[in-house]
């Protein structure tokens, strides 16, 4: 329905609520479902006329009082399993994000009990009336099959616990000999993690999906805390938002949502006027778009605009975020004619425009072009958002990506910002004590600060040792100058690095440019993500960036005495560290393991014939590790090579998961927790592989960088043989570093150990064999650090020519697999 535009209207911001996208066969009698064709038309129209944003961004814009005209967010209640099919495909088709609210107590149930009750009602109404125990519990149920009786019983049953409601439905079905089939169902434990992957994000809908307004204080707290805990355990991060079941909330419910740590909560509105009021972040209205044809959907959205116009003329202030545009400005928001856009992309003819298409970074047309780069940067380093966290103005990214135990503060110079827990000037942070925070999230702020040197110095002061500053800054951009949003600076990678270097760990300082000529040109013209080909975002040209990012860590010296907690009797993870002449680095490596937030691990250090003080250092640390560290060696203390050394440790490992860490590398404090959560949620997956920061530890200065693991997009399961084919046959990106893995020991036991004949590539052959037998989870998280130095096994192999020989042998092995494996033969 792209032909029908609403651009002449004010397009007030709106949050939509759906339940399920399903065919009649999938949903049975459920009247809340919308057919896939109708949903496709809804999203087509919505993305043509609105800027569809994640709910996180929508609420962040509300809290920071940003421009929101034409902004929309999509939500789903109920966590219907069938939304992983047609709904997900349609959302991906139009690149539209959505938030799914999960009722924790319904996960894994075979149906929704109220749908089952409705399907049974014609048969069981009379049975209900004559059953003494049923009549005693529900005395007002009339002996008829009409809708009033069903409505009354459903309302009564919503006061029951989840188990009681399902038990009663099963009893009724058994009483009339009915089989409950062809009913929509909630997602199960295996399906649930998919609601945290594009195009979805997740929120909470309580536990029992029952009205909160009728609960006792203890029951109310259980709904918020119980669902928060359940989802945090399943997804590895807390839900940011809450959906009040049936849209019903009172002051106590809103306060409970705040106390539980949610950054916003949504209702369901009743009437157009209530859909326009975004005054309370914990009572945000959502509009029911209907489940009928596109005409009804468009009429509902137009009604919002009409009511908003009437309210403005009446000087009402119910929709302060709907900004009226002058005719002169409105001309800048009109769609770029198709022929003009084609001339840009196909004929390479740049229109000679003296004015941009839009003056709000493309926000009038859709999603700003810098957002995908910023979001990917935050996603990659989400593990850093832990402990005590500081973000500016609103929890736009920390709220969505912080670790479950994080404590988030919001800083703003404006005392009227209701989200601000710290009111201060970023340039001094005078009210904040030294070494207060573990992470500071600073996105698109630094260019607006007059004194950037004082700002960075202050932020370094309030970070704890080992704390991380995550920075994004504008590069090639419009120099907007309006009240409250003045741009003072623009940054390139080298400039941002120079600014940060004096205060942070310079060798590990990671600065990256994002964008290219096409993206930069489109950004300046005011185009949006929806206007450009998706593959443009995979190309970075450091000479034409639109945004630069930095991960800066405050130096953390290795202490003289490492603190260890008591070793577990049955460790879940075995960390395997082969060691050869690593007296300079082994203590730092072990310190990185000691700092893990996940506590159930053992460490197996295997000395491979070291001739320096490595073994002595490792044994001294083991003696004070409370049983955490076991130091092994080959008979006679000889050197037998990396493969056999790892194999010795694997034979002794007690954990169900194995991590391989070289004696000169380190892992992030959240590495074990992150990977265990993924493997627990996906029992068929053999290994998690991620990304690593490669940094230089030698003479001179070399930039740190992140390895480019292929198989985009990340954060998904890859079945055999796709991982093998993309990584080793087609060589799409860098193969994951061995210490970025966590592998399931029961799967490793079914393949050959590390090849003792291979001097290099032994780790990649091992992972390749694993990926041919089992699914692999590829993660975007960067939770490892790989030390590059002037002399190492890999460097020496390159210098001697051994690497070239080993690579040739490895490629021969890969090609032989490709030519003989049934996977590739069948294709």
From TrEMBL:
Domain of life of the native organism: Bacteria
Domain Glycosyltransferase 2-like: 574-691
GO molecular function term, any single one: hexosyltransferase activity
Statement: the UniProt record of this protein carries the keyword Transferase: yes
Record GO biological process: carbohydrate metabolic process
InterPro entries: Glyco_hydro/deAcase_b/a-brl, Glyco_trans_2-like, NODB_dom, Nucleotide-diphossugar_trans, SAM-dependent_MTases_sf
Keywords noted in UniProt: Transferase
Domain NodB homology: 191-262
Functional description taken from the UniProt entry: Is involved in generating a small heat-stable compound (Nod), an acylated oligomer of N-acetylglucosamine, that stimulates mitosis in various plant protoplasts.
Family per record: Belongs to the polysaccharide deacetylase family.
Name of the protein described by the UniProt record: Chitooligosaccharide deacetylase
Organism placement in taxonomy: Bacteria, Pseudomonadati, Pseudomonadota, Alphaproteobacteria, Hyphomicrobiales
């Amino acid at each position: 329905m792209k032909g029908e535009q609403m651009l002449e209207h004010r397009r007030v911001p709106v949050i939509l609520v759906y339940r399920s996208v399903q065919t009649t066969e999938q949903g049975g009698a459920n009247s809340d479902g919308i057919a896939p064709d109708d949903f496709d038309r809804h999203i087509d129209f919505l993305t043509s006329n609105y800027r569809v944003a994640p709910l996180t961004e929508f609420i962040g814009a509300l809290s920071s009082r940003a421009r929101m005209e034409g902004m929309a967010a999509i939500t789903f209640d109920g966590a219907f399993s069938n939304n992983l099919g047609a709904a997900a495909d349609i959302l991906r088709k139009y690149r539209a994000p959505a938030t799914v609210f999960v009722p924790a107590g319904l996960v894994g149930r075979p149906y929704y009990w109220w749908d089952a009750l409705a399907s049974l009602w014609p048969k069981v109404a009379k049975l209900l009336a004559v059953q003494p125990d049923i009549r005693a519990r529900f005395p007002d149920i009339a002996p008829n099959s009409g809708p009033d009786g069903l409505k009354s019983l459903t309302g009564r049953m919503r006061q029951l616990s989840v188990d009681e409601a399902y038990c009663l439905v099963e009893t009724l079905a058994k009483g009339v000999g009915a089989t409950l089939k062809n009913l929509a169902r909630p997602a199960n434990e295996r399906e649930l993690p998919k609601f945290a992957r594009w195009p979805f994000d997740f929120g909470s809908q309580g536990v029992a999906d029952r009205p909160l307004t009728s609960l006792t204080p203890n029951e109310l707290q259980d709904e918020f805390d119980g669902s928060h805990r359940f989802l945090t355990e399943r997804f590895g991060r807390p839900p940011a938002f809450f959906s009040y079941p049936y849209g019903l909330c009172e002051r106590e419910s809103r306060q409970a949502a705040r106390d539980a740590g949610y950054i916003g909560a949504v209702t369901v509105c009743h009437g157009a006027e209530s859909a326009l009021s975004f005054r309370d972040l914990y009572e945000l209205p959502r509009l029911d778009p209907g489940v009928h044809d596109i005409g009804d959907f468009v009429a509902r959205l137009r009604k919002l605009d009409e009511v908003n116009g009437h309210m403005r003329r009446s000087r009402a202030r119910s929709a302060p975020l709907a900004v009226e545009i002058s005719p002169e400005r409105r001309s800048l928001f009109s769609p770029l004619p198709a022929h003009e856009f084609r001339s840009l992309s196909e004929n390479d003819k740049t229109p000679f425009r003296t004015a941009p298409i839009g003056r709000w970074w493309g926000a009038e047309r859709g999603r700003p072009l810098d957002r995908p780069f910023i979001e990917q940067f935050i996603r990659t380093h989400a593990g850093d958002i832990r402990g005590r966290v500081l973000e500016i103005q609103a929890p736009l990214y920390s709220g969505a990506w912080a670790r479950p135990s994080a404590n988030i503060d919001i800083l703003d110079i404006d005392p009227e910002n209701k989200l601000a827990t710290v009111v201060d000037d970023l340039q001094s942070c005078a009210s904040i004590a030294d070494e207060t925070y573990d992470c500071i999230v600073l996105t698109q702020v630094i260019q607006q600060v007059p004194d950037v040197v004082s700002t960075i110095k202050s932020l370094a002061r309030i970070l704890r040792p080992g704390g991380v500053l995550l920075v994004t800054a504008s590069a090639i951009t419009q120099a907007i100058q309006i009240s409250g949003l003045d741009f003072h600076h623009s940054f390139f990678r080298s400039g941002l690095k120079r600014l940060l270097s004096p205060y942070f760990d310079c060798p590990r300082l990671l600065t990256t440019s994002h964008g290219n000529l096409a993206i930069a040109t489109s950004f300046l013209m005011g185009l949006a993500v929806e206007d450009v080909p998706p593959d443009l975002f995979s190309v970075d040209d450091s000479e034409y960036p639109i945004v630069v990012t930095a991960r800066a860590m405050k130096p953390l010296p290795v202490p003289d005495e490492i603190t260890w907690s008591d070793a577990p009797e049955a460790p879940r993870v075995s960390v395997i560290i082969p060691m050869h002449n690593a007296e300079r680095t082994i203590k730092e490596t072990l310190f990185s393991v000691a700092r893990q937030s996940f506590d159930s691990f053992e460490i197996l250090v295997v000395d491979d014939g070291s001739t320096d003080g490595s073994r002595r250092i490792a044994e001294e640390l083991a003696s004070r590790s409370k049983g955490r560290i076991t130091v092994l060696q080959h008979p006679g203390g000889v050197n037998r090579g990396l493969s056999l050394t790892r194999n010795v440790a694997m034979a002794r490992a007690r954990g169900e998961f194995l991590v391989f860490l070289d004696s000169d590398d380190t892992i992030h404090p959240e590495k074990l927790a992150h990977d265990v959560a993924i493997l627990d949620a996906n029992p068929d997956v053999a290994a998690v592989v991620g990304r690593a920061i490669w940094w230089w530890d030698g003479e001179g200065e070399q930039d740190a960088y992140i390895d480019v693991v292929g198989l985009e997009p990340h954060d998904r399961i890859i079945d055999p043989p796709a991982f093998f084919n993309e990584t080793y046959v087609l060589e799409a990106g860098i193969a994951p570093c061995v210490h970025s893995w966590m592998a399931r020991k029961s799967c490793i036991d079914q393949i050959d150990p590390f090849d003792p004949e291979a001097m290099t590539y032994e780790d990649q052959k091992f992972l390749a064999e694993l990926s041919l037998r089992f699914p692999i989870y590829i993660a975007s998280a960067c939770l490892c650090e790989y030390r590059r130095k002037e002399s190492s096994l890999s460097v020496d192999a390159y210098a001697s020519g051994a690497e070239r020989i080993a690579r040739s042998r490895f490629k021969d092995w890969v090609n032989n697999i490709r030519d003989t494996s049934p996977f590739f033969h069948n294709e």
